[in-house]
Each structure stands twice: as structure tokens, then as C-alpha cells.
Amino acid sequence: MNCRTLHQTNSAFMDSSRNFIRLRTGAPLFIAILAVALFYSASITTLWKKWVLWDQDLAHSLPTLVLMFILLGNRSFSTTTEKVAKRPWYWLQIIALSGCSILWYLFESLSIGLPAYLLIIIILCLFISTCLSTRVMLAALPYIGLTIFTIPIWSELTNTLVNLSSTMVGYAVKLSNLTALLDGNNIFLPSGTIYIADGCSGLRYLTVSLLMGYTLILINHYRFAGALTTIGIAIFLGLVANWLRIYLLVLVGYHTEMQSSLMHDHETFGWVVFACILIPSIYFAPVSKQAAAAIRLPARPSFLPLIPLLLGPVLLQFSPAPKPDIQPLSLQHLNAYTIKGRASVGAKLAIDIPTREQRLIALNERELQINLYTRIAKEKKEEIVPYIGRMIDATNWSSVKQVRLKTPAGDSFDTGIYKQVGSSARILVARQYIVGKFRTSNYLHAKLFQIIAKAAGNSYFGLLVIQTHCKNDCSEELSALPPLLDTVGRLQE
């Protein structure tokens, strides 16, 4: 072995030794993260099942977690002789940690996923702050922020992104002087129709673009102005990539009379367009050689925060199973108004709740299609209010207007006006959620009412949907519907 080889071997050994010492010094921080993941495994297990599906809004979750540990592991760590100061701020954080842990139990016990996932991030920050110091938490916070990309919060943007894509691509089509008709999310071409579905929202490109921008901020240690600019550019590039992809598909469909293979399989095409936009942007991003300061950890962490940390998991473990409940909701009170032997009114509903009762009735010379979907939560961790996505098929009906109707009895209904694609026909659709003894027109409120309904021993749920045809712009029907909704809504009498 010559001197040069020996020197390289010694250098590699020294580098490995330094990395080992550095990671051993930072071990308490990684142990705190793993402890929270272990104790709150009920939510983490649910998230894991979502991550391994590689859905469009969470396909990057596992690589993101690996990235978080790599970036955090590359930070420098040092040990200080200071102890965790138990000042008033410390005890306030202990109280906040206890409250968040109990709140997590309430949401997790009802399978209300999103608030539970967000609370885990807050709990992690509070636990690190009380166990290792607020200074350590603030230093680790930017890296912990990567976890926001691993929870299913981004799917809430789908409808907004679809509508935005339809609008922007529509403008581009008009400027191109193509022979095309734009109606809602549909683009009618002479040789076929292109429908901008939920999968065309561009959510994947937006989240990945934001993730890349956030990673650049962490690596280059941008200041606030630079970080804000980077996030803004990332949002812009993610949106533009999707708009360009859809517009190019419209051009391909128009000039090939919808015969191109891209019209049926454009997944790879979309990522190629996205890469052509994103990679040059990353290459020309400003590079900072400024090194981050070492994260100073206390020699003796505080173990007191383990008590409030365990409150939620212990409550979840020993919480009782729900008592069997009966379903009191029905449409029997509408039997006298039922019309038999007639076709249904309105749109076909896409609601994944198997138990359904329906009626076609006549009230005050108006035909109403009534659908009541019901279910009862039977398991310990089963949610009362199920997931309810888009109810109306957007390929056939486009949303015109959303309003909230108040009935004379004080009930409220979320009401929408929909126009049939390629036609002037319009329908009015009103919906109301029933959670135990509570009624609401808001889906988010229905989710929150689960907590009170469960405490009261009520585990039944109902979704009431009323549809009617409109003669013109639905203004007459909007005025006449509120008193009729009171008659229809007497489900528990």
C-alpha cells in the first residue's frame, strides 16, 4: 500500500468518525422525532397506507421523509452544558402539549384524519421545544416543515385547480383561433371532446414544484425575501406546467382529430413537460455557500414532557367502543306526496354510501327528487361522517352558482345551480348533513359535530339531497324552495 492510498484511507476513516460523532451528538433530536412517530402510530399507520398507494397528492411522501432526515442529519450538532429552563414559557408549552395530545385523541378516535395529522406536527414541535429547548425546535422547524408535504391537505385544492386550469386553457384556446366550444370543464373540438378532470388539476406538479422550491430554501439558507420569491416562482412554474400540458394536448387532439396516442396515455408526456420547465429553473437558482450554525442540544434533556405526550395515545388505547345505535332517519313522512311510475328528476348522484332511500314527490305543484343516504358507525375508530367527494358528475353538469338557503324553520341547505353540458337545461340541488341531533349545510361543520354526537351517544349519519328542474335561471325555484325544504326535512318525526 503506497502513501497516497494510505492517506485516502485515513481521510475516509476520519470523515466517518466525524460523521458518527456528529450524528451521536444529534441523536436526542432524532430520538424525539421517532418517539412521537411511535406513540402516535395510530395516525402514522393510516398515513403509511396512503403513502404506499402513490396517489397523485401523496406520491412523493416517502422520498420527502427520507429527504428530511438526510438534510437534518447533515446539520452540525454540538452539546451545551445548559439545562432546559423551566420558566413560565416552558409550563405554557407543557399545557399546550397536553391540550394538543387530547385534541389528537378526539380527532383520531373519530377518524378525522387531517386535523389529527396537523396536530402531530404541532405536538412534535412542542415536544422538541420542551424536551430539548425552544432554540433546538426553531433550528429544526424548517426541516420538520417538510412533513406538510406528506399529509393529504393538498387534495383540498383539486377543485380550485381544475377550475383555474379550465379558465387559463380556455383563454389560450380562444387566442389560438381554434374551432372549439368551451363549456365548463369541457372543450368541444370538431373531432371530439376533451374533459379537464380531477386528474388534470396539476396537483402533482404543484406539490412537487413547491417541494423542490422548499428544498432549495433549506439547502441554500435563503433569507425571508429570497424564500418568499422562491415559493412564488415554484407555485407559478407548477401551475404553468400543467396549463401548458393541457394546452398542448388540445393542439395535438385538434390537429390529429383525436387519433394521437397522447390523447389516451399522456402521463409521461406531462412529466416531460414539467421536467423541461423545472430542471432549468433549479439549475439557475442562486446558490449560497453560507454554512448554517450548529444546533446546540442540552447535555440532559427534560423527560417531563413524556407525560403530556402520552395523554392522547393512552386515552385512545383505553377508550370504550361505541354503543350500538339505531337509524331514526327515513322518508316515510313523504309517502303521501310520492309520484309513482315516473322517471327521476335531476342528475345522477355519485355518493359512495350504500344505504339509500329515495322518493319522487310533488309539493306545491313542484316535482322534487329526494335522496336520503344513511349510515351508522359501529367500530371504535370508525368515523360517523364518511368521505364525500364530488356529488355531481362534472362531465355532464357544470356548476353555475352556489348559495346557502335558509328555511322558515331555521334550517340551512347548501344549494347549487348546475347547467347540463351542451344544453341550456338547469337543475337546483340542495343538500344537508345530519350528524346525530345536529343538522348543517357545511361538510366541515358536520365533521366537527362528530365529536359532540359521539359524546352524546349518537353515531348515526344522514345526507339529504333534494333536486328539481329549473324553468329558466332557477331564480323562481330558489324563492319557492325554502318552505318545501322544511316539509322534506322532517326526517326524525
Characterise the protein shown here:
This protein is an alpha+beta fold and 493 residues long. The protein has 3 domains: 163 residues, no CATH class; 129 residues, no CATH class; 157 residues, no CATH class. The protein has 14 helices and 12 strands. Strand 2 and strand 3 form a beta hairpin. The model has no long low-confidence stretch (mean pLDDT 86).
Going by helix content, strand content and strand pairing, the class is alpha+beta
Provide the residue-averaged pLDDT. 86
Main beta-sheet annotation: 7 strands, antiparallel
Kindly give the count of domains: 3
Strand content is 15-25%
Estimate percent helicity.
40-55%
Number of strands: 12
Number of helices, counting only DSSP H or I runs of 4 residues or more? 14
- Rounded to an integer, what's the Rg over CA atoms? 28 Å
**Separation of termini?**
93 Å
Chain-wise SSE layout:
Elements: H1 3-25, H2 27-39, H3 41-51, H4 61-73, E1 77-80, H5 88-109, H6 113-132, H7 134-144, H8 158-175, E2 181-183, E3 186-189, E4 192-195, H9 203-220, H10 224-255, H11 267-283, E5 295-298, H12 306-318, E6 356-363, E7 366-376, E8 397-406, E9 412-420, E10 426-435, E11 438-440, H13 443-455, E12 460-469, H14 475-488
Parallel strand pairs: 1-5
Antiparallel strand pairs: 2-3, 3-4, 6-7, 7-12, 8-9, 9-10, 10-11, 10-12
Helix pairs in contact: 2-6, 5-6, 5-12, 6-7, 8-10, 9-10, 9-11, 10-11
Q: What can be said about this structure in brief?
A:
This protein is an alpha+beta fold and 493 residues long. It has helices at 3-25, 27-39, 41-51, 61-73, 88-109, 113-132, 134-144, 158-175, 203-220, 224-255, 267-283, 306-318, 443-455, 475-488; strands at residues 77-80, 181-183, 186-189, 192-195, 295-298, 356-363, 366-376, 397-406, 412-420, 426-435, 438-440, 460-469.
